[in-house]
Structures are given as structure tokens and as C-alpha cells.
Amino acid sequence: MGASSSTEQPVSAEQRELENIAASTGALPLLQKSFSNLSDPQTNAISIQALQQCFHLCYEDPVCESQQKPESFPRLLDHLGSSIVDLFFLSEKGGINWLGFLGGYVKCCGRMSTSMSLNILLRIFAMAVKKLGLSSNLEFEPDAADCKINGSLVPSDLLLLLWMCWAMLWNVRTLKSSERKGNLLLPDINHLVLSAVVACAEVDSSFDLWNCDIVGLDVQLPVGKFLNWAITTAPTLSDCLTQYVNRRLQISVLAEDEAGSSESISGDMSPNASQALLLTRGRAWAISLAPRSTITEEILKLCFSADIVGTDENLLYRSSTHGKGLNRFWSNVEGYHGPLLVLISANSEDAYQDNNKARKWIIGALTQQGFENKDTFYGSSGNLYAISPIFHVFSPSGKEKNYVYSHLYPTGRVYESHPKPVGIAFGGTTTNERIFIDEDFAKLTVRHHAMDKTYQPGSLIPNQGFLPVEASIAEVEVWGLGGKTAKEVQDSYKKREELFTEQRRKVDLKTFATWDDSPEKMMIDMMGDPNRVQREDR
């Protein structure tokens, strides 16, 4: 095995270098244990078939939330494990020795740039497609040290690639043994595919984002432009490969009853569980693909929970359930001190087609802290999102810090010659907010990015012009992403406020003492004889 070979034989410089690289990722102990478990004691090597079986993805027939499902996808997953082994793990006559095992892991999961890891992901995808017997427009330079790629993708290829990444994450976070099969739920990710199509292909203004057939869309996405899009919009997409390889190696080492970690979520995911919510699994996953942050883990828990609707501790406010309006909103989010994700579904007043059906769109905002009742902007960081029908991320620009605005009517009404707007806003300036929700949660105003220096420029809604867009709000959701601690702090705050309110409602009659000391008797006595001299207690 790897540990014994290092002690019984002289260690070569190549092996020492590979072991140091693997140790820098924290995976060297896992690699040593898995090699010992998978290798043949006689040859001290792993057979190709054993390693392919180790990386094989087990699943039952996929269930898709979207109606657009390529029939070739299940067979593509069957070639995932063999593609990883054939590309990176070099085999000698007796199998894959310790040096080949180390080198293969470092090639696919070692420390590298985002562009390099995306290249590796594309190589695995292209190999699986080739094994499936389908054609691919991707071309790789075999001897290039930086794995240069030429060619292009079509939208159906991108859908398969993204689903392959989702399937690897699903396997990491739901299954507890190498033999168990679970229901693989494929989320609706058309908004992600359309984001890449608009960014990489040449589409005109008449392109219909709402009624687009992703599988049948015949446009070319140059691989260079796709990589630029992925680095900007989904930089953590390739993390799924490292997590998948590590998880499969862990399962090969641990016994079945010990393979699941405390963070793994077991149970089958219902295909219709999240469809009623604005935050579906596909939209949550798209948000989680942004640069790593403290909310990534909380978002992924929502993606792979058995019942996303049942996660009441995360869904703080929903207008259709708790009622519309700023007061209802405030009563549900007050006291929550943690990251919050706000999603707004609306339709423009003039966005109607010939069939008189409104085209709804969804935008969102992420704050790194709870809401405060202020008449000025505040906040430390955040993001804006165009979520549906197309996905975009607008990170902070660093020029201004007008992240959040949330203002209620003051408790003591006083005259103000220039009253501050009452509502919730993100970006822009006072009275020129980039996103503004009125106090009744009835109207949403979206302004051009020229009014905003806090977030990156770009259109939040399709075909957005320079003039402000006023839309009717259909639904508002607020998700708490601060974990259990933030929710417990809010619960204790609400209990304390309820206690204070109950105490203020109660009247202690003992404080009024007797009739002789009451204000009413004093008034009656004064009316009867106002000139009567009364003794004043000093």
C-alpha cells in the first residue's frame, strides 16, 4: 500500500512531490487508506475495474422537474466513473500502483486555477459523451500542459454537463453507501442554460426567453466564451468533481453504517416539493455556484433536502402565507441577525402577449445582515440576482455602499417637509433606488443600473430599458441563511417581545390604591368647592 511502500523502498523525488501536493489538499491520509483497501495485496496495485467501480455513480431512474429531458443523460452517467479513471489514472501491467494513484488524484483534484478545473470537467464530459457513442464539438490539445480546449457546446450539451455536476453533488450529499441507489431528482436549470446562451451566443432582441426549447435550440457556444461565463457566473461549478472523488474514496474506506457524515441528508427528494416556492432547487443551486461564502452551505442544504417546503426554520416570510405589507414582513424578519435572501416575483404592467398572459420574472437580493429600521442605506455586502427566466449575478462594485434600505413609518409621527420613502430598497440612492418595494408590497420599481454604483451593471429583467419599470408584485419570499444560531436568537427575541407586550396590556389595579387617593375623587371635590383649602403633602 501507499504507506508501506514509502517506508520499505526508497522514496523517489516524484513520489515525494506528489505526496506533498496531496498533503497540501488534506487528502493524503484518505488516499493511503483507500489505496490499502482497494489494492490487491499480491500486486500492491488497484485493478482498473475496481477503481472504475469505486467512482461509479449509483442511482435509480432520474426524475426531472423540467419537461425538457435528453434521453441520453442516464447512459451518460453510467460512463462517469470509467471516464475519470481512463483520463487521469495511468495503469501499468499489474494495475494502478501507488504512484499512478497519487498522480491521478493530483491531476483531477489537486490545487489549480478555476479555469484549469473547468477544463478538467469538460474533458470528463467529452470522454463520457465519446463512450456513449455521441459526437462532440470539443477538441483538446493532447500534449498541452494547460489542457487547451477548442470547439463549442450546444445548449443541450450544456444541460447535460450541468446535470452531471448536479448528479455528483447529489451523490455526495445524499447517499451513504456505494451500493445504495436513490431517486435522482434533476432540477429545472433552464435559467442557467439561458444565461450562458445569452452571454456566449449571438441572439437578437426577439429571442423568447420564456418559451425556449433548450434541447432543440441550435446555437453554438464557443468554449472560450463559456469558460468566461462560468468563471463569472458559476466559479464553483467544478468543485463537484473534487467532492465526488473524495466522497467515493471515503465510501470505499468506511463501513456502510459509518459512511454517512452528520452533514449528509438522506431520503428521497420529491419532484414537486419545491415547485410552489420561488426558491426551487434549481434556483438555489444557481445561487450557490457564486463565489464561496458563508451562505453556500446553507443554500446547498436547501437544494438537497428531502422536502424543501418543510424547511420552516429557513423560510422566514412568504407574502401569500403571512400576508402582504411592510408590517407583516417586519413582524417575521425582525430580530434575525444573519444573511437573508429576498426573492420577488412580479410582472410588468405592459408585459402582455397576444394571448393576454403576463410574463412573470423573478429577481432577488442577498444581504449579509438582518434588516434594520433606518431612513438611510446601510449594509456591509450583498448581491443582486436576476433569477428567472434568465440567471445573472450582480456583485458589489466597490464604488458605493448603498446595499440595503428598509424604512418604516416613525413611531412618533412628526411633520417632515421631505419625508423619506417607506419601503425596502437595494442599491441606488434615496428616491432613485435600483430595486424598490413599496410599503404595501403591491408595486415593485426596477431602475436602470446607471442609477446604482453599489452593484455591478446589467439588466435585472429581460429587455430592460433606461426608463424605470413598474411591476405588480405576485410573491415575496425571505429565506434566513444564518443557520440554527441566527434562528434561535430570533426566536428568543420574539419571545421577549411577546412578554413585554403582554406585560404592557395588563393593568395592575393595586397601583390605584383607595378611592380617597384617586384622581376622580380629587376632581369631584374641586368641582364641589373650588375655593376649599386643601392640605398639600410635601
TrEMBL record:
SMART domains: TLDc (SM00584). Pfam families: TLD (PF07534). Signal peptide: none annotated. InterPro entries: TLDc_dom. It comes from the Eukaryota. Residues 286-482 form the TLDc domain. PROSITE patterns: TLDC (PS51886). This is TLDc domain-containing protein.
